[in-house]
């Protein structure tokens, strides 16, 4: 997978689970308040958000961005502050 598809897949997956959640909410009857139906319709969105969070977090195997490496150089003990 290239970098652009790695960034696109989590967004597409989150949009798909949001669509599933909307479809589930629209499927239940609206002739009264049904709390369990409401909670069940939000379940795909909640699970999709957790999966999206897991996919977008950086892993320890990846190198830190160059900005993180720059901060280490600026805040090292070698800087005397003069």
State mean pLDDT (0 to 100 scale).
Answer: 75
What's the total helix number?
Answer: 3
Shape: elongated
Count of DSSP strands: 0
Question: Describe the biggest sheet?
Answer: none
> How helix-rich are the residues, as a percent range?
55-70%
Task: Describe the structure in brief.
The N and C termini lie far apart (48 Å).
Characterise the protein shown here.
The protein is mainly alpha-helical. It has a domain of 55 residues. The protein is 68% helix and 0% strand. The protein is built from three helices and no strands. Helix 1 runs antiparallel to helix 2. The longest helix is centred in the N-terminal third of the chain and has 25 residues. The N and C termini lie far apart (48 Å).
Secondary-structure map with pairings?
Elements (H helix, E strand, L loop, with lengths): L2 H25 L7 H22 L9 H9 L8
Helix pairs in contact: 1-2
Task: Write out key terms for the chains shown.
82 residues; 68% helix; 3 helices; mainly alpha; elongated
């Amino acid at each position: 997978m290239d970098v652009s598809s790695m960034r696109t897949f989590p967004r597409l997956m989150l949009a798909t689970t949001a669509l599933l959640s909307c479809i589930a909410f629209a499927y239940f009857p609206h002739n009264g308040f049904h709390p369990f139906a409401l909670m069940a319709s939000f379940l795909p969105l909640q699970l999709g958000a957790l999966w999206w969070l897991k996919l977008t977090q950086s892993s320890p195997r990846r190198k830190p961005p160059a900005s993180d490496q720059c901060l280490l150089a600026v805040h090292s003990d070698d800087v005397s502050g003069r």
